[in-house]
Amino acid sequence: MKNAVAAIVAVLTLGSVAGAQEMTGEQMFRQNWTSAETASDGLGPIYNEASCHACHWFGGGARIRIRPDGEVAGAGVLLRHTFIDGTGDPHYGVQLQNKAVAGVRPEGVADLTALQVGSGLTRFLASVRFASGPGRTADITMSLRAAPALDSTGLVAQVSDTAIIRGADSQDKNGDGISGRVHLLQVPGEKPKIGRFNWKATSARVEDQVANALWFDMGLTSSRHPAPQGECTLRQHDCLAASGSQSPDLALDFDNGRIELLADHVRSLGLQAKLPDAPRSFTDAGCSSCHKPVMAAKAGGSVSLYSDLLLHDMGDDLTSYGGEGAALPTEWRTTPLIGFRGSIADHRLLHDGRAANIDEAILWHGGEAQASRDAYLALPVSEKLKLTSFVLTLMSSMPVPTRTTTVQENR
Ligand code: HEC
Ligand code: HEC
Question: Domain containing 119: what range?
Answer without folding.
Answer: 4-148+194-268
